[in-house]
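Hello,

I think I submitted the manganese (II) ion job twice by accident. Can you confirm which output corresponds to this input? Input:
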Amino acid sequence: MTISEENYIKVIYHLSLVSPKGVNTNAIAGMLDTKASSVTDMMKKLSDKDLVSYQKYQGVTLTEKGFHSAKMIVRKHRLWEVFLVDKLGFSWDEVHEIAEELEHIKSEQLINKLDAFLGFPAADPHGDPIPDAKGVIKKIEKQLLSEVEINASFHCVGVKDSSTDFLKYLDKQKIALGSVVKVIDKEDFDDTLTVEIDGKRLTISNKIANNLYVQ
Amino acid sequence: MTISEENYIKVIYHLSLVSPKGVNTNAIAGMLDTKASSVTDMMKKLSDKDLVSYQKYQGVTLTEKGFHSAKMIVRKHRLWEVFLVDKLGFSWDEVHEIAEELEHIKSEQLINKLDAFLGFPAADPHGDPIPDAKGVIKKIEKQLLSEVEINASFHCVGVKDSSTDFLKYLDKQKIALGSVVKVIDKEDFDDTLTVEIDGKRLTISNKIANNLYVQ
DNA sequence: TTTTATTTTTAGATTTGTCTAAATTTAATT
DNA sequence: AATTAAATTTAGACAAATCTAAAAATAAAA
Ligand SMILES: [Mn+2]
Ligand SMILES: [Mn+2]
Ligand SMILES: [Mn+2]
Ligand SMILES: [Mn+2]
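Support: Only one job matched these inputs. Its output is below.
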């Protein structure tokens, strides 16, 4: 599998979590910053290799084989992110790009040894679960902060949006994975929340609450 | 710079340590397991990018720019090898292939943080010196075991040949970097050596002694 | 110094991944 | 149901990196 093929497979994997009935050509093109016609070409290639099932105009889904490959790439991506943050001291907004390259390094032994070295982490620095060597993903129980009842306490466990902008906003507000959050009040008009994070009062917009997972 | 260009630059670097006046097309092709005609094409490309100076039929040399790039690739290769052996527990004969891929990961910050994480090692698992962030290589004093006087004691500090076969032979004989070696006797006929390694008597061929550096 | 052998380069083709522009299919609107 | 709009695919082209086969240049041998 080439790097390009791997990038396609991973994008299809992520998109099919949202649209399991079939992923659109255009959606793939958007994620990979390429053109729809290039996607069509690649779908034929991946279909020939039995990594996706593809019928003209009908969108694509991953085959068993493609699904497993995708999880192995995601596994590598997330383990490398843990390495970069835990061992090398990168911050969580700096690691995605580098992991985007590291995820294509080809040794299975490497990734299993890295997993062990990191202590078999369950989640990456953004709270996303790490598939094990067999591809099994332990689902992490979590809710969006925007959907949680008032006056109960939770822990931050993940982010939905892991863009630099959002992560840096969280850093600024001293919100990190593990922080204790309690919703004090919710504004009816625009769903703005008054929260207490690690004991400190804060007002956050619905957009923020909509991208923060708690448990 | 593409991965392919980087591989060419690195090979030219290694070959020019032996033939500083100019590296042959055929030699490059041999190292990269490709054809001479492909090398010619690439030399034009690298020349256009001012990474090598190239004149038809005359061989190539690295420019300042190419020389620096080469050292940065070698730096990455060797640091990753240290990581694989010291942190992940690979043996020294398993790491070259993987480092061959890791050396192309593009972040300068990554490699400098990795360097710090590893404690700024001076040499890789095969005893080869690691260029620092500026490209400076501290030369390691060393002699081939085949050229050393009899009855003096040395430490193993490196290997000239780092093929799996040779490294596995050394493992079998319990010869590692750091081992203490003393040449007891040298056979006139074929230069076979009788040595004492960490106190243990051993007979080794000239070919072995010719690929083991001591200090 | 010719002749022969070796090395290197050119010419032309192939594969991979991409693009633009045009054609086709499907979906959405009148 | 007919028309318009959007999504998708085809056709044809291009750059990167490679190859084979033939031509040219250099080195070695007679
Ligand atoms: Mn990637
Ligand atoms: Mn992540
Ligand atoms: Mn390489
Ligand atoms: Mn090495």
